[in-house]
Specification:
- The chain has 16 helices and 13 strands.
- The protein is an alpha/beta fold and 371 residues long.
- It folds into two domains: 183 residues, Rossmann fold (3-Layer(aba) Sandwich), CATH 3.40.50; 181 residues, Rossmann fold (3-Layer(aba) Sandwich), CATH 3.40.50.2000.
- The strands form two sheets. It has a seven-stranded mixed sheet with strand order 3-2-1-4-5-6-7. Strands 10-9-8-11-12-13 form a six-stranded parallel sheet, with helices on both faces.
- Strand 6, helix 7 and strand 7 form a beta-alpha-beta unit.
- Helix 1 crosses helix 2.
- The longest helix is centred in the last third of the chain and has 19 residues.
- The radius of gyration is 21 Å and the shape is globular.
- The relative contact order is 0.12.
- The mean pLDDT is 91.
C-alpha cells in the first residue's frame, strides 16, 4: 500500500474559510481511503490521526497549538528515511522542500503576484518567497480552476503533463439545511441580498455602493448583507465610509462578520439572490454554494468565475457599474419568478450531491497511487 502524507497546517486556524475548508475536505476523504496509507503532518511533525479527526469533527483547529508544542517535545518528527520513501501532498505553501520522495502542491491562485494592489505587503512577500520554489520542487501541481492552471503555465512555464485540475465542492449538513429552511417559517422577513466573502479590496464591495449612489431605491426594497470576516488593508473602514457617502441609511446595510457554516448557509438560503462582484478569484466557492442552494448570483465575469456555475449566474464586468445594474435587474426578475415556489431539503441535497468534494480528492488519490 502506498504511503503518503498530507500537510494540514492550515487546519490549525481557529475559524476555517477558503484554503482551510479545502484542506479539511481532502483530509476527510483521505481518512476514509482504504487504498492509501495516509498520515498527516504539520511541517515535519507527525500528527495523530485522532487529533486530525477531532479537528474535522469540530470544524476548527482551536486548541491545536498546544498539540504542536507537545509533539515537538515528544520528538515526533518524521524520520528522513521514512520521508524519502513516502509521497506528500502540500495543499498550501510548502514549509519545506524535497523532504519527501515525491511531492505535489496545490495552487489556488496567483493573485498576490498578478493583483498585488489588493494584498498586504506581508502576504505578497510570503507568497512570492514561496511560489517559484514550491513549483520547481513539486513533481506534480494541482490547480483549482482552468484559469489558475493557465496562469501557472503562462507565468512559470510549467508543462501540461505536470498539471492537473481538481474540482471544488460543497458539503451541506442536512441538519443545517433543514434549520435554514425553517428559519423563516411563519414569518414575513424583509427581503435582502447576500454578498459572501472576506472583506478585502479584491472582493470589490465598493461597487455595490457605486450602484447604490445611482440607485438608492434598491436599498429601500432590499437590505444589503455582507457575510464574511474582516480582512486586510482596512477594507471594512473604506466600505463604511462609502456607506456614509451613499445617502443610504446605515440600517439598510449589514456586516455580519465571521459566521459559522450553518449561519452562512441560512443567510444565503433565505436571501433573494446573491452578489459576488470580485475582481479576481482562483475559483469563487460562494458562487458554487449559492448555485447548490438554488440561488441566482450576480457574478463578476473575471478570471475563474465564469467556470463555476454559469447556469446560475448573471455575469457583468466588475469595473462597469452600468453592467452591474443591468445584472442586478435580471437577477431580481429571475429571483422573483422562483421565490414563491419554495424548496425542500431534498431539492437542496439533490443539487449538492453531484458537487461533492469527491471530485477534488479523486485526482489527488490517483496521482499518489501512480507513484
Amino acid at each position: 500500500m502506498r504511503k503518503a502524507y498530507l500537510e494540514v497546517g492550515a487546519m490549525f486556524e481557529d475559524s476555517w474559510t477558503g484554503i482551510a475548508t479545502v484542506i479539511a475536505s481532502i483530509a476527510a476523504r483521505a481518512m476514509e481511503d482504504k487504498e492509501i496509507d495516509w498520515s498527516f503532518c504539520y511541517e515535519t511533525l507527525d500528527l495523530p490521526r485522532e487529533r486530525v479527526q477531532q479537528m474535522l469533527d469540530q470544524r476548527s483547529g482551536l486548541g491545536g497549538l498546544g498539540l504542536l508544542g507537545s509533539r515537538i517535545w515528544q520528538a515526533t518528527e518524521i524520520a528522513p528515511d521514512v520521508a524519502a520513501q513516502a509521497t506528500c501532498v502540500y495543499p498550501n505553501v510548502k514549509p519545506m522542500r524535497r523532504f519527501f520522495g515525491r511531492e505535489a502542491s496545490v495552487v489556488y491562485d496567483l493573485s498576490t503576484l498578478l493583483t498585488p494592489q489588493f494584498h498586504a505587503a506581508a502576504n505578497i512577500g510570503h507568497f512570492a518567497d514561496h511560489i517559484r520554489g514550491d513549483l520547481e520542487t513539486s513533481d506534480h501541481i494541482f490547480c483549482i480552476s482552468e484559469a489558475t492552471k493557465s496562469d501557472v503555465k503562462a507565468y512559470f512555464g510549467v508543462t501540461e503533463e505536470k498539471l492537473s485540475l481538481i474540482q471544488m465542492g460543497v458539503a451541506f449538513d442536512p441538519v443545517d439545511v433543514t434549520a435554514g429552511l425553517l428559519t423563516l417559517t411563519g414569518q414575513t422577513p424583509e427581503p435582502y441580498v447576500a454578498i459572501v466573502g472576506t472583506l478585502e479590496p479584491r472582493k470589490n464591495g465598493s461597487l455595490v455602493f457605486d450602484y447604490l449612489i445611482q440607485n438608492p431605491a434598491f436599498a429601500s426594497r432590499y437590505r444589503i448583507v455582507f457575510i464574511g470576516r474582516d480582512g486586510w488593508l482596512e477594507e471594512k473602514e473604506r466600505l463604511l465610509e462609502r456607506l456614509q457617502d451613499s445617502g443610504v441609511g446605515p440600517d439598510r446595510v449589514m456586516f455580519t462578520g465571521y459566521v459559522s457554516d450553518a449561519e452562512k448557509l441560512a443567510l444565503m438560503l433565505n436571501s433573494a439572490f446573491c452578489i459576488y462582484p470580485s475582481l479576481f478569484e482562483g475559483y469563487g466557492l460562494p458562487v458554487l454554494e449559492a448555485a447548490a442552494l438554488g440561488k441566482v448570483t450576480v457574478c463578476s465575469n473575471s478570471s475563474s468565475m465564469p467556470e463555476v456555475a454559469p447556469e446560475a449566474c448573471v455575469f457583468f464586468n466588475p469595473l462597469d457599474v452600468f453592467e452591474f445594474g443591468q445584472a442586478i435587474r435580471i437577477a431580481d426578475l429571475r429571483a422573483s419568478l422562483t421565490r414563491s415556489a419554495g424548496q425542500s431539503l431534498a431539492d437542496v441535497m439533490d443539487r449538492a450531491a453531484p458537487l461533492s468534494w469527491d471530485a477534488c480528492y479523486a485526482p489527488i488519490a490517483d496521482w499518489v497511487k501512480q507513484g
